[in-house]
Write a structure and sequence with these properties.
Layout lengths: L27 E9 L8 E12 L3 E6 L6 E4 L3 E8 L6 E10 L18 E11 L11 E8 L6 E3 L3 E6 L5 H4 L1
Antiparallel strand pairs: 1-5, 1-7, 2-3, 2-4, 2-6, 6-10, 7-8, 7-9, 8-10
InterPro entries: PLAT/LH2_dom_sf
């Protein structure tokens, strides 16, 4: 059989997947999902670094790094998700500021972008999910999902390198809400 050690914690104790070095030790997890657009002028892929700032009615979390381990290769027309942690619970996200910085890697000649290529990232929408405690032992925590869309005349945000775009929770197109 398998030997186990019974913990000294009372039944129903909370455990956190991610903890910090300093107080508060507990960390909230936020899943950020990017739906990338693929307009005709977009490169098939770009690589770079990304940060987000999450805004709600009760607070702001600034500059969450989506790429702490280095650049990410992003393929236009696909979806990607990233999980980030932060000690603050700010509630439902109403606005996201998304920062993009293209990375030219000299070891990858195809990534070098000067005049003949497009280093922009095209984002259709951003989803933010936060796992919350529901207070019931043995039950999975509920998730609060928010779908945020870009402002402007297009169905996507055209984000040049070293710039930001704003996404809000008021999507005009009903198809984006599904």
């Amino acid at each position: 059989g398998l030997n186990t050690v019974r913990p000294n914690h009372a039944p129903g104790s909370k455990y956190f997947i991610s903890t910090g070095k300093d107080t508060p030790y507990c960390r909230r997890q936020y899943k950020v999902m990017l739906d990338l657009a693929k307009p005709p002028r977009a490169e098939s892929w770009v690589q770079g670094f990304m940060k987000v700032s999450l805004h709600s009615d009760s607070g702001v979390i600034r500059n969450l790094d989506l790429t702490p381990n280095g650049y990410e290769r992003m393929e236009h027309g696909t979806s990607r998700s990233f999980v980030v942690t932060h000690p603050d619970d700010i509630g439902q996200v109403k606005r996201v500021e998304f920062y993009w910085e293209y990375d030219m890697d000299v070891l990858q000649p195809r990534s070098i972008c000067f005049f003949w290529c497009n280093d922009h990232l095209y984002v259709s929408s951003i989803g933010v999910t936060e796992a919350e405690e529901d207070g019931n032992r043995g039950k999975r925590g509920i998730q609060v999902d928010t779908k945020l869309c870009s402002q402007g005349p297009r169905e996507y945000a055209d984000i040049a390198s070293r710039t930001s775009a704003v996404f809000i929770d008021k999507c005009d197109d009903q198809e984006l809400l599904n």
